[in-house]
């Protein structure tokens, strides 16, 4: 059976424009959430966000490093983040230079939950104010979700499978899981896989606020707003960014002497079949996804040392926790579980990929990132290590990421040390 | 260089991200400045906005160099 390993990582997050800056800030317990700066929020109910910082910020992102000027002008930010994260991952894997044969066996699977909402918003204003003759000729392909994978394949000449998942907040995890399968099935030897999102625009923030999904009671204390499992949590905080990994067939990676971070061993998928935005109250879908991932990995619950939870800082946190307890045991079998959304907010379609990278780095460095702002743990959290406030050194052999999306779509991924 | 030429050149630099000294009057948008057909549609829209002219599709198709754009604008602006 073909095995799939991770040989490169790339991140653009509210805590950094690259992997190491993001990870160091996360481990130090810093927050990437602050007052929203991108537009006037006077009339918005939610006034905070986890924005990717501008390049003059110490943790800033410089789009000029890897994304052509013309492309930056033509596409929505989620595509810019995806191209940059993909470039980082290829550089990390030592695969920027590939021969034609390898390019034909290298594919891309980068998705997004929503896609180019900022551009859709601004161009509809152009249409309304100036008429159809002023709509940009780049409008459509600069907003389409699969132009993440499209742009990356064009930039690097990658002619393998070109795929894009759209499963709301499960996108990043599904993208990696699907891509790992493509390698297992022999469709490709190398896949760039991940997710990207950027919908911190007036329409995006208003839409999630109207759906009662966003935190609105901590506008004056942004760093404290995302507080998974805390009694005072009341909604998620919008984040943005991208996470992309290089997945590679194990023998292929070994033969070229690649640095191997971890192996993708388990992938579980399910549907809630319950409600458009609310999770099943008993977390049945979440449980099914986790059990499938464990079964595929051939692992026992006690083999998992770290769970990066979906944990959005909503009422759903404790539903997920109850499901994790049913799968791993009432003390999680000794595993630690944290929600890094406490530090970066919810990256929606990017979340599962970014958080899987955090799982991989937890394995690399044998340290688990904290759940910030967990001052007053909610009922049901007793006897569970939710890694409050501070990162924790501990053995991490294998880690599980949960991602759940609107529409009731669930994905669980397990990565383990090789 | 005329005032029209200066403004055309500025728009081309802003849209295509090319060095200003490459934008000579004889430069072809596609062959010399790296534009594709959609970039030209966008450039024509930008010229229309900047100079308050209307450039119909059949005229736009004939604009292939920087000079073509300058000449069309000089002949048609109000």
From TrEMBL, chain A:
One Gene Ontology MF term: 3-oxoacyl-[acyl-carrier-protein] synthase activity
Domain Ketosynthase family 3 (KS3): 1-417
Keyword Transit peptide: no
Coiled coil, from the record: none
Keywords of this entry: Acyltransferase, Fatty acid biosynthesis, Fatty acid metabolism, Lipid biosynthesis, Lipid metabolism, Transferase
Pfam entry (one): Ketoacyl-synt_C
Record field: catalytic activity: (9Z)-hexadecenoyl-[ACP] + malonyl-[ACP] + H(+) = 3-oxo-(11Z)-octadecenoyl-[ACP] + holo-[ACP] + CO2; a fatty acyl-[ACP] + malonyl-[ACP] + H(+) = a 3-oxoacyl-[ACP] + holo-[ACP] + CO2
First-level EC class: transferase
Enzyme Commission designation: 2.3.1.179
Pathway as given in its UniProt record: Lipid metabolism; fatty acid biosynthesis
Domain of life: Bacteria
Family: Belongs to the thiolase-like superfamily. Beta-ketoacyl-ACP synthases family.
Xref: PANTHER family: 3-OXOACYL-[ACYL-CARRIER-PROTEIN] SYNTHASE, MITOCHONDRIAL, POLYKETIDE SYNTHASE-RELATED
Function recorded in the entry: Involved in the type II fatty acid elongation cycle. Catalyzes the elongation of a wide range of acyl-ACP by the addition of two carbons from malonyl-ACP to an acyl acceptor. Can efficiently catalyze the conversion of palmitoleoyl-ACP (cis-hexadec-9-enoyl-ACP) to cis-vaccenoyl-ACP (cis-octadec-11-enoyl-ACP), an essential step in the thermal regulation of fatty acid composition.
Designated name of the protein: 3-oxoacyl-[acyl-carrier-protein] synthase 2
Organism: Sphingomonas alba
From TrEMBL, chain B:
The keyword Cytoplasm is annotated on this UniProt entry: yes
Compartments reported by the entry: Cytoplasm
Domain of life of the native organism: Bacteria
Keyword Metal-binding listed: no
O-(pantetheine 4'-phosphoryl)serine carried by residues: 37
PROSITE patterns: CARRIER, PHOSPHOPANTETHEINE
Listed Gene3D superfamilies: ACP-like
InterPro entries in the cross-refs: ACP, ACP-like_sf, PKS_PP-bd, PP-bd_ACP, Ppantetheine_attach_site
Pathway(s) this gene product operates in, as recorded in its UniProt entry: Glycolipid biosynthesis; KDO(2)-lipid A biosynthesis; Lipid metabolism; fatty acid biosynthesis
Residues annotated as domain Carrier: 2-77
Classification via Pfam families: PP-binding (PF00550)
Post-translational modification: 4'-phosphopantetheine is transferred from CoA to a specific serine of apo-ACP by AcpS. This modification is essential for activity because fatty acids are bound in thioester linkage to the sulfhydryl of the prosthetic group.
Keywords, ordered alphabetically: Cytoplasm, Fatty acid biosynthesis, Fatty acid metabolism, Lipid biosynthesis, Lipid metabolism, Phosphopantetheine, Phosphoprotein
UniProt cross-references to NCBIfam families, sorted A to Z: acyl_carrier, PRK00982.1-2, PRK00982.1-3, PRK00982.1-4, PRK00982.1-5
Protein's job: Carrier of the growing fatty acid chain in fatty acid biosynthesis.
PANTHER family (alphabetical): ACYL CARRIER PROTEIN, CARRIER DOMAIN-CONTAINING PROTEIN
Family the UniProt entry places it in: Belongs to the acyl carrier protein (ACP) family.
Protein name: Acyl carrier protein
The organism of origin for this protein: Sphingomonas alba
Name of the encoding gene: acpP
